[in-house]
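Recall that a protein's primary structure is simply its ordered list of amino acids. Everything else, from secondary elements to tertiary packing, is in principle encoded there. The following example makes that idea concrete.
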Amino acid sequence: MKHQEGALKLVAPSAGGGAALYFQSWSPQDSPKAIMILVHGYDEHSGRYGYFAEHCVKYGMAVYALDHWGHGKSEGKSGYVPAFSVYHDGLDALIDEIPSEQRALPFILVGHSLGGLIAATYLLENQQRFAAAVLSGPAIKTTEEPSSFMKGLSNILSKVAPAMGVLALDAKGVSRDPEVVADYLADPLVSGSKISARLAAEMMANMELVQRDAAKITLPILLLHGEKDSLTAPEGSVLLYERIGSHEKMLKIYPGLFHEIFNEPEKDIVLADMTDWITRIIK
């Protein structure tokens, strides 16, 4: 397996223009048969997906991933984003980095958690770039639906105090494996920052966008979710499955699994389900 690292530059007029974003890739020794674009979740980073990447490389896929603006080794303020479009700009830059000799291969977009929301919104405008998509525990619905008052308050805070932390994530909801939780809490690239008022408002607005426009997504799509996910609602994946316009779609809800299904004790089953589905789609 070949591993590479590098830096991407976001350019103006992006809200994150000028920021340097870290990215890395894992590739087979021989030419890959597909390119996977991996989009990680909130307050984590691409380095947490080494095991995931090794599995995919065994199936002949190259995996490209970046650390989002404000995450991991990338520049930007933790817990905050100036505009949700910055995440899309990062994906644009990452895809532009892929070597020209690999551009004709099937591209698979894989998003987890916040990355699932980023991927879903990106598909609304860019699905023609991909052969298929996989969303893992996507943030399509919150576990507790906010009231109209809370949505209004969030919009106000987003304008008057955009960087103020308003929502903390419970690390115990990441995985049933205590070692995974301990490693997450000890990871120096995990900031522990609360979600800011701006990011919370941007997330809610984009959740509503995906729920409203889901029928525009028509490419093959696999939706994966842990039944006991306390960080993103499994109902969001069910809703997306019901509303997307794809003829080729599959939903798998894993009984008893927590949020990070790729880091649960059953991760090998989940990963095999994913790569078996992708292999069938792109053959």
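Helices lie at 50-58, 85-97, 114-126, 148-160, 178-186, 197-213, 234-243, 267-282. The mean pLDDT is 93.
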